[in-house]
Structure formats: C-alpha cells, structure tokens
Amino acid sequence: MKHVVIYARVSSNTMDQLESLKAQVSGLTKFISGHNNWKLVDIHIDIASAKKDSSRPAFHQMIEECKAGLTDIVVVKSISRLGRDTVEVLDAINILRESQVRIIFKQEELDTLTVGSSLLISTIEACAQAENETRSDNIKWGIKQRASNGSLGFYRRKCYGYDKDKNGELVINEEQAEVVRLIFHLYLKGKSVGGIINELEDRNIKSPTGKDTWPKRSVETMLSNEKYIGIAAVKIGGKNGYIYKLNNAHPSIIPKEMFDTVQGDHLNRSNVEQTEDGPKRKKTKYSSKKRN
Q1: Tens-place pLDDT, residues 61-76
Q2: Sign of CA dihedral 164, 168, 170, 172
Q3: Domain covering 2-146, topology
Q4: pTM of the predicted model as reported, rounded to 2 decimal places
Q5: Which has more pLDDT, 205 or 273?
Q6: Contact assessment for residue 221 and residue 184, using Cβ atoms and an 8 Å cutoff
Q7: Cα Rg for the chain, rounded, in angstroms?
Q8: β-strand pairing of 232-236 with 170-172
Q9: What homologous superfamily is domain 153-281 in, according to CATH?
C-alpha cells in the first residue's frame, strides 16, 4: 500500500481562490481513489501568494515528512502549484526524488516514475514560461478592463490641490487649490513660467514638496494637468499604449474654458513651431517682460 499525500496551493483567501482550492482537492482525491493500492494519508494546503518570500508552512511540513520516509507519492494539480518559479519547482523535485518520493502533476500528466530528468526539466520550463505569459496577459487584461470601466485605482492618484477622503476618493484641498487657481490666473495675465515662480516666491508660497523655490517642471505640469478640470487619465501599455480618460472623475478646480485658453496660449508662446521641414525654433522667444 502506497502512502499518498496531496499538495494544494492558492494565492489568497478570496472566494474564487477558495473555490479553486476546493476543486483542486476534490479532483486529486478522486484521482487517488481510482488506485487500489494507494492510500490518501494527508492533504497539505497553503494559502500563500506567488511572491518568493511568502510563507508556505504546509509545503515545508510535507517536505519534512517525505524526508522522514512517511510518504511514497505526492500528487499536485499542476507544476505551478508546487512552486512559484522554475527554480523552486526543480529544487522541490530534487529533494523529493532524493527521498525516494514519486511526484505526479495531474494537469500536465507528468510522473517522475516514468519521465526522464531532461524531459521533465524541459517540460517544467516550458509550462512555467507559458504560465507566466498567461498570468501577465491576465494582469494586463484586468488593468485594461478596470481602466475602461473607471474602477482603476490610478484614476484616484493624488496630486497637488487634492486630498483623499476616507473612501479613497479625491476631494479638493482648498488651500492648495487657491494656489493652483493663482498659477492659472497669472499665466493668463501674461506671466511666463519663470515669472510665476518669482511671484510665488514673493508671496512666500511653498512648493508642493515644501521648498521655498518652485521647480519649473512643477508649474509647467500643473498648467497642462487635466486633473484640474475633473478628468482622470491613465496610460496602459507603455510608450505605444492607450490613454484612458475618465470625465467628471472628481471635483474640478479650474473651469474647462480657462484650462483650454491656457493650452491655446501655451502653443502661441512656444518657441517651437511646426513647419513643412518639421519642428523649428522661432526667431524670437516669448517673454513676459514689458518692452520699452
């Protein structure tokens, strides 16, 4: 009579993961019951994330019992359930093999009793790569879905002028919002970015990081940030990805008409213009200084 144990793992205690765990154990128990000379002696279950350093007490207990000669066969649903990467899986297999323990991966139909080492390793590596690619695709798909339906957390990323309420939603920070409005008003009055920075320093208004001097980039970014008109935007997929925008995502600080006027004014002031030969610098540069 062969002493058989089941090892099962899920990454969280959410309802769908617990259902997956139930299905793993049920399917493997049925598989074991189909062998007359097998006896199920234990079921080792871990609820642990895919992170390398996350604790797996049941896994380590199973290994120790195998080393002690208490187990003949370990049955696992799939390669990805035994370890969280190829190295971890191979380490576990080597330890179990040294303890004369047979391992069966039900999903891949792999059995260390009948499969050679080289074939086993190549199969594990291929399965691990496919698993990683699938997981990556699923994560990207999930992000895109949340971006398209407005539930992505990045939409609620805080910036200067806003705080978060107890529910994680953006609300206006009135003290900072007044500074935002001032910057937009100064720009429309003809001030350059440098002129706005000087004005802020003269008024002893601290930068978003609490410094006496405002970085030029901070002011430029603020003047072009659609967040101030209630639009939350997030880019998915890197340089050539998609930009998802959520209108009326939070209270606006700047009226849309004012924001649009600033964008148009910025183009007029730009020292770069588009020509038939491509972008070129203008001969003169905009300045907020009055001419004599």
Answers
A1: 999 999 999 999 999 9
A2: negative
A3: Rossmann fold (3.40.50)
A4: 0.47
A5: 205
A6: no
A7: 30
A8: unpaired
A9: Putative Large Serine Recombinase; Chain B, Domain 2 (3.90.1750.20)
